[in-house]
Design brief:
The protein is mostly helical. The chain is 71% helix and 11% strand. It contains 2 helices and 5 strands. The chain has a 3-stranded antiparallel sheet with strand order 1-2-3, with no helix packed on it. α1 runs antiparallel to α2. The radius of gyration is 72 Å and the shape is rod-shaped.
Length: 211
């Protein structure tokens, strides 16, 4: 930013533009300006530099800086940025491919585990069915053995019962025949034939047993 410093020397007027630190200074000599001694103001003065129009060297420096920055962006910064973006994209893509590969491997392992589990379940069911069939066969065999033993014991018991019944029947028939013979002897005064009495008692008791 320029600061104007006006210096008057006689009839001439010197305008000095003082720039900030590090910038050049310029002087403008307004020798054509006329001043009245009483008012000390210039009535006519030549045209000085415009405060808003930039100088050519400022335009040159700005254009040069822009061109250098554009070339730096095009050939240095942008390739570095693109390289970093490509590396990041490649890393992300590699991570995604690795994740997909791990996912596929995990799914294959899960499928293999399910297949092995199904095989184990099938074998377990087969073994259970075989054990059930074996137990059922053993149960049937044992039931048949027990039923045969029971039937055998029942037959022996029935034979014993029949033998005891026959023995008791003989004794009962003998006792009844004696009682009947005694009763007939008491009724008729004559003892009846023992064979006839035994036959009659046997017929009577046989008919009762059959009924």
């Amino acid at each position: 930013m320029l600061t104007a410093v006006v210096t008057r020397t006689g009839a001439s007027l010197t305008v000095q533009f003082v720039a900030a630190e590090g910038e050049e200074t310029e002087e403008f000599h307004a020798e054509d300006c006329e001043f009245e001694p009483e008012s000390e103001t210039a009535t006519e003065c030549g045209e000085g530099p415009s405060p808003i129009v930039p100088e050519y060297k400022e335009l040159a420096w700005g254009a040069g800086s822009f061109i250098v920055f554009a070339l730096l962006m095009r050939f240095v910064l942008f390739p570095m940025l693109k390289k970093g973006m490509d590396a990041r994209y490649s890393g992300i893509r590699g991570d995604l491919e690795g994740a997909e590969a791990r996912t596929a491997s995990a799914r294959a392992e899960v499928a293999e585990y399910d297949a092995q589990l199904a095989t184990v379940r099938g074998e377990a069911n087969s073994r259970v069915e075989a054990a059930r069939a074996t137990l059922e066969a053993e149960r049937s065999e044992r039931l048949a053995t027990v039923n045969a033993a029971i039937a055998e014991r029942r037959g022996a018991a029935q034979a014993d019962i029949d033998a005891a019944r026959d023995a008791a029947r003989g004794e009962i028939e003998g006792a009844v025949a004696d009682v009947a013979a005694r009763a007939g002897e008491l009724a008729t005064g004559k003892r009846p034939d023992a064979a006839a009495v035994a036959a009659a008692v046997s017929a009577v008791l046989g008919s009762e047993v059959s009924s």
